[in-house]
Amino acid sequence: MASVTLVNGKWRALVRRVGHKSKCKTFVVKAQADRWARQVEAEMDAGVTSSPGPTVTVAEVIKAYEKLREASRPVADTSTEHYQLKTLTAGLGHHRVVAMTPQHLVDFAAQRKEDGAGPYTINMDVSKLGTVLRYGGAAMGVVFPDIVGTSRPLLTHLRLIGGGGKRERRPTEDELRRVLRRLAEHRGLVYAEAVAFSAVSAMRRGEVCALRREDINPDTKIVEVERKHPRKGKTLERVPLLGEAWDIIQRQPEAEDGRIFPIEPGTLSKYFTEACRHLSIPDLHLHDMRHEGTSRLFEEGYQIHEAALVTGHKDWRNLKRYTNLRPEDLTKRERDKRPDAPPHPDSPPSASPSRGKS
User: Fold this and answer.
1) Domain hosting residue 68, numbered range
2) Cα–Cα dist 231/358, whole Å
3) 80-92 and 102-114 are packed helices; what angle lies between their axes, rounded to 10 degrees?
4) Which of 29, 50, 71 is the last residue of a domain?
5) Cα radius of gyration (the chain)
6) Are 155 and 126 in contact (CB under 8 A)?
């Protein structure tokens, strides 16, 4: 909003507009001040600015956004948002923002898809770009065109972005065995062990890579894990290491930095995707190991409140999407409880000797 006031015998024109830097200029004649103020407002409405907007790159806006966040809630190096910003910088950072077209975002999304990201993940990346351009641009005093809003219809039509839906993909025993072997032979045993641990502990990749030996109580087999909380940000939780999860931890060698798996989450995802692509294993993501581990808990007979202690879910209803039990699992459990019940037609012949006639 513009205001023209008389100050010390001269007319001062001040223009304020949300999302823009305030502009102020002094004139001798009031008509000149009015005309200048109207021109500045028109430029702001049209997205024109005298700031360095036309030359600003996406990478520069991302840096401005991160600096803006430092004052209130910094972007943690271990957060998903940090990984998103790195991904956006790598894929789009060199582009001048005002020169971007929907095709640039289509190319970015197509590459993310090739790297193994699903429509929901890509949608989150694109949404983060919109947030960065809006708030990072405001911090720089620049209003950028809404390239994200313009590109969304095309990205949706090409099925490059979409909702989360309910993912039910679990690795078969053979798929998991092949992936672990590939990682151990070509990337190092530590990567195979980290994936195996994910599949039995139901931990997120960031939690797995951050585990430290000093945080484990060998007497209780409990580890303290920093986890996401829907309302509190990050919280420290005590998590039991059950069965094979404890065995995997025990056989890891000592690392200089004290971590159990001294590797980076992004590198672990990259090598996992690379192994799946080489082995022609379709639609399998590293995060599916968390799904696998959670499903195994229920298959082993743990109740929802017990599984939640391991997985860290605060809303037990969210555990349902991880629980892909087959009807055969329940009937098998029932047969195990009743050994004298008639065998299932598909069951293999019993190994026990048959009774002879008396």
Assistant:
1) 54-157
2) 71
3) 120
4) 50
5) 28
6) yes
Instruction: Tell whether 276 and 294 lie within a shared domain.
Output: yes
The amino acid at residue 36 is W
Residue whose tokens read 């582009």: 95
With contact defined as beta carbons under 8 Å apart, do 299 and 329 qualify? yes
Last residue of a domain, one of 157, 192, 212: 157
Give the pLDDT confidence of 22-76 residue by residue, as tens digits: 788 888 888 888 888 888 887 777 655 444 567 899 999 999 999 999 988 888 8
Taking alpha carbons only, the member of 119, 99, 95 closest to residue 109 is 119
116: Cβ contacts below 8 Å, ≥ 6 apart: 269, 273, 276, 277, 285
Q: For residue 303, what pLDDT is reported? A: 82
How far apart are the C-alpha atoms of 316 and 227, rounded to whole Å?
16
340 in a structural domain: no
- Are 192 and 150 in the same domain? no
Are 304 and 208 members of one domain?
Answer: yes
pTM (predicted TM-score): 0.54
Instruction: Specify whether 199 is located in the same domain as 277.
Output: yes
Q: Which helix (H) or strand (E) holds 323?
A: none
Query: Residues 144, 277: one domain?
Result: no
- pLDDT band for position 347 (50/70/90)? very low
Q: Distance of alpha carbon 159 from its chain centroid, rounded?
A: 19
- CB-based contacts of 334-337 (< 8 A; 24+ apart in sequence): none
> Do the beta carbons of residue 203 and residue 223 sit within 8 Å?
no
Stated as kind and residue range, the H or E segment containing 238 is strand 233-240
DSSP 2-33: EEEEEETTEEEEEE--TTS--EEEEESSHHHH
Sign for the CA dihedral angle at 217, 222, 228, 233 comes to negative
- Give CA–CA dist 126/148, Å, rounded: 7
Tell me the HSE value of 68 on the side-chain side, using a 13 A CA sphere: 17
Q: How far is CA 53 from the centre of its chain?
A: 30
Q: Is residue 167 part of a domain?
A: no
Q: Over 70: is that where the pLDDT of 335 sits?
A: no
